[in-house]
Design brief:
Blueprint lengths: L2 H24 L15 H4 L2 H34 L1 H8 L5 H33 L7 H33 L3 H23 L7 E3 L4 H12 L8 E3 L10 E4 L6 E5 H4 L4 H20 L2 H24 L4 H4 L5 H38 L2 H15 L7 H7 L5 H12 L1
Parallel strand pairs: 2-4
Antiparallel strand pairs: 1-2, 3-4
């Protein structure tokens, strides 16, 4: 067995063990008491007209999204596992470093062009159903900016990998694993201040009743909160949302401006507080940091697996610009295969945030109305197929969240 292969096995095992231990230790595996949930009938939660509209949209959007995913994987595999990708990159001009960037850009843009019709179809569907209010020019500009950011970050990652291969020679998987884990942590830390401002504007939540109540909930949940930000999401979407991003000095609790503007009446105000309490629960448990650490361990295991797969090839077949299509194809496949694990962990964390929010507010009615409103506004499938929820669902379903709330507060 070659030294590279032995190192790859060690890195894979260390990363996998660290991932399992960290997930076992940090993920809330029993976030609510009792056994299996007694889900409400969707017809008791939504009207017949609401269900008809939700299913019409979600079924169409699901098939478009799945078709786009399949198309992107087919393109990645054709470019990565046939001679087509190597021949394409071989034609790129310039010095070695420039060819790396051009190779990443070429593969990325080809995939984008192939999947662009699906993106257009989704945006048309969202406009038709009132989920988006973003003009086509703005949407296309965001799409291009996303591609540019992706090309830049991927190019840096590939260059770092090539540097490890050239410097580490037989031991490069260990060196690359350490570097990739560090990049995951750094990327999560700087994302709120380096990437998010490219797409949105942020302002502090104005003084008033909502800000006072948000700070009060934060105090009850033991969250040190310097500020709450409002993002101009309404220029793109009609959905109501909030999120926590970053950790340490870059941690942000962010509310959609249309969520802040949606307060009309006591129930609507209570629903907004339920959303805020949910996000403050994420901050309380440092869920972004937890996800980052677990993700770093998973990336170590991924580098070990990559080293094993590449150990059966000569370095001149993969540590060159011509090898980039194959590397990106492997990354795409592994990313899709890892989705059930990532989303399974996410659902547990989201469930705990719901439970903590319910304990913080004690308001079952507002929480239930919120889930109804979110389901109707997002037109999500209230009862997706079990395998689909297992693979693609990052949050519990609407019916599951309502059942959990009744279990916790009834």
């Amino acid at each position: 067995m070659s030294a590279t292969r032995r190192t790859s096995w060690v890195v894979l095992i260390v990363g996998a063990v660290a991932f399992v231990v960290l997930a076992w230790w940090l993920i809330p595996w029993h976030p609510y008491p009792g056994g299996p949930l007694d889900l409400p009938d969707e017809r008791d939660v939504f009207t017949a007209e609401e269900l008809k509209r939700m299913l019409a949209y979600s079924d169409t959007a699901r098939w478009i999204s799945r078709a786009s995913l399949v198309a992107s994987l087919v393109v990645a595999c054709v470019l990565g596992f046939t001679s087509l990708g190597r021949r394409l990159v071989a034609r790129l001009p310039g010095p070695w470093l420039l060819r790396v960037v051009l190779a990443v850009a070429a593969v990325t843009l080809i995939g984008w062009v192939v999947t662009l019709p699906f993106g257009v179809a989704i945006h048309r569907l969202q406009l038709r159903y009132g989920l988006s209010r973003q003009a086509w020019a703005s949407w296309f500009g965001d799409t291009l900016l996303n591609q540019a950011v992706g090309i830049l970050t991927t190019s840096l990652a590939v260059l770092a990998l090539f540097a490890c291969i050239r410097l580490g020679r037989r031991w490069w998987p260990a060196l690359a694993a350490a570097l990739v884990a560090a990049l995951v942590v750094v990327g999560s830390f700087v994302y709120p201040v380096a990437i998010e401002p490219l797409f949105n504007d942020f302002e502090p939540l104005p003084r008033g009743q909502l800000r006072t109540e948000v700070m009060a909930i934060a105090d009850r949940e033991g969250v040190q909160l310097d500020d709450v930000l409002v993002v101009d999401a309404s220029r793109r979407t009609t959905s109501l949302n909030a999120y926590v991003t970053g950790f340490g000095s870059t941690r942000r609790v962010v509310l959609y401006d249309n969520l802040v503007a949606s307060q009309r009446g006591a129930v609507a105000h209570g629903a907004v507080l339920s959303v805020v309490a949910h996000e403050l629960a994420h901050a309380k448990h440092d869920d972004v940091l937890v996800g980052t650490v677990i993700g770093a361990a998973g990336s170590v295991a991924g580098v070990g697996l990559l080293g094993l797969l590449l150990s059966y090839r000569r370095q001149d077949e993969y540590a060159t610009p011509e090898g980039i299509p194959m590397l990106l194809a492997l990354f795409a496949l592994v990313s899709v295969l890892a989705m059930p694990v990532e989303n399974g962990l996410s659902r547990q964390v989201e469930t705990r945030a719901d439970v903590d929010a319910l304990h913080a507010t004690g308001d079952l009615e507002s929480f239930t109305r919120l889930q109804h409103s979110l389901g109707v506004r997002s037109l999500s499938d209230p009862s997706p197929q079990a395998w689909s929820q297992w693979w693609f669902g990052s949050h519990p379903t609407t019916l599951q969240r309502i059942a959990i709330a009744r279990r916790v507060l009834d």
